[in-house]
């Protein structure tokens, strides 16, 4: 019995040491991966990297990690070919089947899914903000975006008719969709600018706009978009996503 107790104590101690070693190793790997990702994506701050699954050391031995979660607070994604960027907030992605090199200099995920958000203030930068003539004597421009409820965006349009600015903005509810790498905002109904007769294509030149997002980290791509309280919520996905290298 005494020998059995000693054996159990030894097993418990060894098990504890293994768990400690495993957690130290995963912490080191997370820090290394975060540093590599920060460098490869030119991030202002290191992202949050969390390697899921236990034990970690057996995953290392196989050369593949089951699930790695990456979180980036503020990401400046490229927006088209003119050098402009758009800020993506709280980008979180779950990477599955991550193959990595021994020194973590390269890591590629078989698949990835995630979520992020774009504030209305950020999206507003892509709308036509300068007054534009939509009919003789009538100019208009988008001055605000907000939550319209039921998955709609409320677009505020300011108009000037025959030199007189309307006392309050004209509001329209718009639908937001994702098509390829582009977020599109399209008015469900056209605004009435003080009763002026305005052709649909001239009105939509003001109310409708789009934002290309083609520079998400690791090659992940835009999947879907939905209007929410403080901005638009997007989902992303990808395959063979490069975390580093």
Automatic annotation (TrEMBL):
<dbReference type="Pfam" id="PF11209">
    <property type="entry name" value="LmeA"/>
</dbReference>
<dbReference type="InterPro" id="IPR021373">
    <property type="entry name" value="DUF2993"/>
</dbReference>
<protein>
    <submittedName>
        <fullName>DUF2993 domain-containing protein</fullName>
    </submittedName>
</protein>
């Amino acid at each position: 019995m005494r020998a059995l107790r000693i054996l159990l104590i030894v097993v418990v101690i060894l098990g504890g040491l293994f768990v400690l070693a495993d957690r130290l190793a995963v912490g080191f790997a997370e820090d290394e991966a975060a540093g590599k990702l920060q460098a490869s994506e030119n991030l202002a701050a290191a992202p949050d990297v969390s390697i899921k699954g236990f034990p970690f050391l057996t995953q290392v031995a196989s050369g593949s990690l089951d699930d790695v979660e990456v979180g980036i607070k503020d990401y400046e994604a490229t927006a088209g070919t003119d050098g402009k960027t758009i800020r993506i907030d709280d980008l979180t992605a779950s990477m599955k089947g991550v193959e990595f090199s021994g020194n973590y200099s390269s890591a590629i995920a078989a698949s990835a899914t995630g979520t992020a958000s774009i504030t209305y203030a950020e999206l507003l930068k892509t709308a036509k903000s300068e007054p534009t003539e939509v009919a003789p004597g009538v100019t208009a421009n988008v001055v605000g975006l907000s939550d319209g409820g039921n998955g709609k965006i409320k677009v505020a349009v300011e108009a000037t008719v025959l030199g007189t600015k309307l006392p309050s903005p004209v509001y329209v509810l718009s639908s937001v969709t994702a098509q390829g790498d582009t977020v599109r905002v399209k008015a469900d109904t056209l605004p009435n600018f003080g009763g002026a007769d305005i052709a649909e294509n001239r009105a939509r030149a003001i109310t409708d706009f789009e934002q290309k997002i083609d520079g998400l980290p690791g090659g992940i791509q835009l999947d879907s978009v939905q209007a929410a309280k403080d901005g638009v919520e997007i989902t992303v996905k990808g395959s063979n996503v490069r975390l580093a290298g």
